[in-house]
Amino acid sequence: MKHTLKKYLTPSDGQEYKIQFYYTKGGINYLTGNQNARGYHISVTPVYRKWNEYKTANGTEGGYWSESSIMFNGIKHLVEEASRYSKAKFDALSEDFMDVYENTINGMIAYCEDKGWKVKAD
Q1: 14: left (phi > 0), else alpha (psi -120 to 50), else beta?
Q2: CA–CA distance, 119 with 21 (Å, rounded to integer)
C-alpha cells in the first residue's frame, strides 16, 4: 500500500510539476535493478495535465484529468528510512515538506539543497 500526498504546482515558466510525499515499502526496482529503500520519499516530476469533458448518450456529463510525463524526468529522494508506516510520522514529515514550498518549485529545489541532496536542474 502506498500512502501519498500529492500537489501540482505551475511556476511562472508554465511547466506543471507533480510533487509527491509518500511512504513506500521499497524493494527491487526491476527497471534499474537497484534496491529502493523502505521509508518516506519526496519526488518532483514535470507533467502535462489536461481536463477532458464527456457527455454520455443518456445525458450524464462529467470529466476527468489525464496526466502524462516523460520517462526518467524528475527527482526523487529518500527523506527518512522507516521499517513500517506511521501516520503520525507521515503527518509530521509531510507538514514540514508542504510548508517549505507552498507556491514555488524553486522552494523544492532549495529544500533539497538545504538538506544536502543533489538536484539536477535541466
Answers
A1: left
A2: 16
- pLDDT score for 120: 46
Task: Answer yes or no: is 121 within a domain.
Answer: no
Cell numbers standing for residue 36: 529502493
Residue 53 lies in a domain: yes
Residue 17 forms part of a structural domain: yes
Evaluate whether 116 touches 79 at the Cβ level (below 8 Å).
no
Q: How many structural domains comprise the chain? A: 1
Over residues 2-18, mean pLDDT? 74
| Single pTM value for the model | 0.69
Ramachandran angles phi, psi of 91, nearest 5°: -65, -45
Q: How far apart are CA 23 and CA 69, in angstroms?
A: 21
